[in-house]
Amino acid sequence: MVKQYETTAAPRGEGAAAPRAVQEPSAKELKSRAWRSRRYRWDMKFSPYALLSPFFLFFLAFGLFPLLYTGWASMHRVSLTAPNDMEWVGFRNFTRLLEDEFFWNALKNTVTIGLISTVPQLLMALGIAHLLNYRLRGSWFFRVAALTPYATSVAAATLVFVLLYGRDYGMINWGLGQIGIDNIDWKNGDWTSQLAVSSIVIWRWTGYNALIYLAAMQSIPNDLYESAAIDGASRWQQFFHVTLPSLRPTILFTCVVSTIGATQLFGEPLLFNDGASPTGGSDHQFQTLGLYLYEQGWVNLHLGRASAIAWTMFLILLVVAAVNWAIARRLRRSEGRAR
Amino acid sequence: MSATVTDKVPPAGRRSRPAKPPRKSKAGKTLYGGKWTYLVLIAVTVFSLFPLVWTAIAASRNNTRLAQTPPPFWFGGNLFKNLEIAWTDANMGAALFNTTIVASISAAGTVLISTLAGFAFAKLRFRWKNFLLFFVIATMMVPPQLSVVPMYMLIAELSWTDQLQAVIFPFFVAAFGVFFMRQYLVQALPNELVEAARVDGASSVRVLWHVVFPAARPAMAVLGMLTFVQAWNDFFWPIIALTQNGNPTVQVALTGLGRGYIPDQSVIMAGALLGTLPLLIAFVVFGKQIVGGIMQGAIKG
C-alpha cells in the first residue's frame, strides 16, 4: 500500500518547483512561474474551505435552517394544510403542551420504555462481548449472527414481532402456554405493551452494542490482564477490576447513544399498534414522544405544536446528556480518589 | 473485490482479526472459550436469527394457517405466491428499486462529502478549524425530529413530496461520516506524504486524488457500507416525505402493510422478507467487513 502512494503521489511532468537549469529565465517563464505561485498560494488558502463547503452547504440547508426554523414555527399556529399561513402565538404551543395530559403520558412512556429497553440491552451486550472476547471457533460466525438483527429494519422487525406477540395465535403466548401461563394480551396491557416494544429494541440493538464493547475490550492491553493474573485475580475479578474500568468511556458512549435513540423511539411503537396509528395503543399506553409529535403534526395537522414538541424533546435530551456527563465526571473523580 | 477489502479493513496496529496471537496469560490461564461460552453464544445466535427465520416460515404459509395454534414451525408451500403478491400488490418491487437508488446515492454522496471534509479537518490548517469541528460533533446530538417540520414545508414548497431526492439530500448532512473520516485520516495518512506532494507542486485536487483517496479507501468502504445500511433502514423522515402509492421506499411500503393495506398476514411477512433479504445477503457476503467496520468505528468514536 505504501508503495502505491510513492508511485502515484509523484507528480508527472509538471513538477516545476525546482529549477531545472541555471539559465536566465525568460520573461514568459517568469510570468508563468508567478502565476503558478499565486495559484499555489490561493490553493493553500482556500482549498480547506472548498473541501468543507459541500458538507456545510447541505448542513445549512437540511440541518441548521430546519433546526432554527422549527424554533420559529413553534411560536406560531401553523396548519399542515396551509404551511405558509403562520399566525404568531408566542409561547402558547409550549404552555398548551405542559397542560396536555397526553404529553406527560408520552414523556412517562418514553422514559419507561427507554429504561426497560436500554438497561438490559447494555448489560446483555456487555456479557456477550465478554464471551465473544474469548478465543473461539467460528468467532466471526457468532459476531455476524449477533449483528443480523441490526440489518433488519424497524418496520420489518416490528411486523414480525407483532405476529409473535399475537394474543391468540402468537408464538410467544403459545410458548408461555406450554409452561402453563394463560394467553397475555400484550398489546392492550400497560406494562406488557411497553415490555413488548422494548423487546424489539433490545433484539435489534444488543448485538450492535456487544460488538462495540468487544472492540473496546480488544484494545485493552494484555499486560493488564497478565499482571492481574499474577496477582491471583480470578477471571471474574479480572472482568470487574480490569475490563470494566477500561471500558468506562465506551460504556458512557453507548449510554449516550442509546439514550438519544430511546428519546426518539418511533417506528417500533408506531407499527406495534393496530393499523400503524400513532396513538400508541387504544389507551395511549405505549405512545412515545416521537409518536405524539407525529400525531400532533400529521394527524391533527398542528405543525406549530409539533415543532414545540420537537424543541421540548431536544431540551430533554440536553438535560439527559448533562446528567450523563455529570455522572461520568463523578465516577472519574471517585476513581481517582480510590487510586 | 471482497478479498482485497478484507486485507485492508483492519487499520494499522489494531488487532481485529482472529489471526491475532491467542490471549494467553503468563500465569497459565488460557482464555479459550469453554462449553458454557459456546452454549450461551449459540443461544444468542438462535435468539438473533429466530425472528428472521420465522418471517420466512410465516411468509411460506397462508393467512388461515397463521390464525391457528400451535404456530407453524416449518416451511409451507406458499412462499413464491406470497412474494409475488407482495412484489406487485404491496408495491414492494418498486420500493426495492427506489430504496436501492436512495441507499446507493446516499452512501456515495456521504462518503465523498465526508472524505473531503474529514481530510480538511485532519490534515489542513485553516481558521476556525477547532470551532467548526466542535460544531460538526455537536450536530450529531441533534435529533431528526427537530428538523422534520421545516423540511416538510421545504419539500412541499419545492414540490418534492414523493420524490426520491427528498429523502436523499438530508442524508448528506453526515456529521458522523465527517468525524469518522477525520479520525481515520489523522492516523492513516502521514503528514509527510501530503507535504511531499505539496513540495512537488501538486495542487489540492492532485493531492486528493493521488494521496488522500488511496489512503482513505478502507475507511471509505466501511463508511459506505454503514451509510447504505442506515439509509436502507431509515424510517422517520421517509414515511413523512413519501407515500405508499407514489414512490415508496421499502420502509414506507412496509408501513403501508402495517396499516392494513393488505390484510393477509402471510403476505405481510413476505413483504418484510423481501425488504430485509437484500441486506441479509449483503451481511452474509460482507459480514466480516461490516462487523470490522462497526468495531473500528467504535474505537475511534
TrEMBL record, chain A:
Similarity remark: Belongs to the binding-protein-dependent transport system permease family.
Transmembrane segments: 46-69, 111-132, 144-166, 308-327
Membrane-topology annotation of the record: Multi-pass membrane protein
Major location (coarse): membrane
Residue numbers spanned by region Disordered: 1-24
Protein name, entry field: Sugar ABC transporter permease
Pfam families to which the protein is assigned, alphabetical: BPD_transp_1 (PF00528)
Native species: Streptomyces polyasparticus
Transport found in the keyword field: yes
Keyword Cell membrane: yes
Cellular location(s): Cell membrane
Keywords: Cell membrane, Membrane, Transmembrane, Transmembrane helix, Transport
Low complexity bias spans: 1-21
Superkingdom, taxonomy of origin: Bacteria
TrEMBL record, chain B:
Membrane topology label: Multi-pass membrane protein
Gene3D superfamilies to which the protein is assigned, alphabetical: MetI-like (1.10.3720.10)
Region ranges (Disordered): 1-28
Classification via Pfam families: BPD_transp_1 (PF00528)
InterPro entries: MetI-like, MetI-like_sf
Localization (cell): Cell membrane
Stated name of the protein: Carbohydrate ABC transporter permease
Organism of origin: Streptomyces polyasparticus
